Amino acid sequence: MPLAPIFRRTPSLRTRVAFATAIGAAIVVTIVGTIVWIGITNDRLERLDRRLDEAAGFAVPFVPRGLDQIPPSPNDQDVVITVRRGDQVRSNSDVVLPRQNSDYATTEVDGIRYRVRTVELSYPEATTLEVGATYDDTIADTNNLHRRVLVICALAVGAAAFLGWALATFAVRPFRRLAAQTRQIEAGDKAPDVEIGGATEAVEIGEAIKGLLERIWTEQERTQAALASARDFAAVSAHELRTPLTAMRVYPELEVSLAPSPTCIIIGLPAGLRLAVDNAIANAVKHGGATRVQLSAVSSRDGVEIAVDDNGSGVPKAERSEVFERFKRGSTASHSGSGLGLALVAQQAELHGGTASLANSPLGGARLVLSLPAPH
């Protein structure tokens, strides 16, 4: 497998949390480890200096008697003691410590490092006492402790990364459940009830996805309704081609009037609204036997009502709902038909977000009311 696609992959949330935890732990461990590292170095050096102080304090009272009279220190018999008095230099071993310019110093003799404590004595006059101890053992002990600090720091960073990975595993469980539920959704399925618990962020994402799926499902229903409307229109358009003008030519005695009204604003499909009005007029003429049809429109804050009144036979009250169903005809219909005219009117009203209803007309026949909502 090529390496480039692998490195281009976005790391998982668990990996990011583990990496961030390791980085944070490394920073903290580095700071603490540095402090401990320096503390160990200083502590070991101070311990050695205290040894030299004790050895020097034990030897000082014996210096006036001569170097041969200085007994070994009861607590540290391995120290090297060098006494200088003028040009005379005496040492208790084959090692002679070089003169130092400070109270505490580190020097090297024959390839061996020594830590030296220098004491200037007032008596005998011009006498210097130098007490030294090998420094290599202290350095080895210090390095051993330093290695332990490094191991502990590395283990701490590794443990922090592992804990970050483990905690992130629990944290991403709600997201994994959400992904599993989303994968189970098939095309055309109704928007499922996404149930997500746990972290607040997971709940928010779950609610957002649920809302998205509900909106998609709503739009699918609207699309399917529009497609059904188009299919119905194509299926029945051959049966409903007569317009009011055709009805007027077939029925020369038909009187069509438009009631004057203020300008009404409607947001909709002109062809669909024209189809609804045409079918209402044609239904009044063909099936109601009307000789007079009056169209009016009233605008209000709630919307627009288009009324088609006629002086025909009307529609019985008990049948006013079912005649809007497809292939349903009223009992007073005088001509044969398909039963789709008023169904198309109701369909167009629904597509425009409104309703269609029947009532008694002041002209004595039926009043068809097309109620459309106000534009937003």
Explain this structure to me?
This protein has 376 residues and is α+β, with helices and mostly antiparallel strands. It has three domains: 13-163, Beta-Lactamase (2-Layer Sandwich); 186-233, no CATH class; 240-373, Histidine kinase-like ATPase, C-terminal domain (Heat Shock Protein 90), CATH 3.30.565. It has eight helices and ten strands. The protein has a five-stranded antiparallel beta sheet with strand order 2-1-5-4-3. Strands 6-7-8-10-9 form a five-stranded mixed beta sheet. Helix 2 packs antiparallel against helix 3 (136-171), helix 5 runs antiparallel to helix 8 (341-351) and helix 7 (270-286) packs antiparallel against helix 8. The model is unreliable at 238-245 (pLDDT under 50).
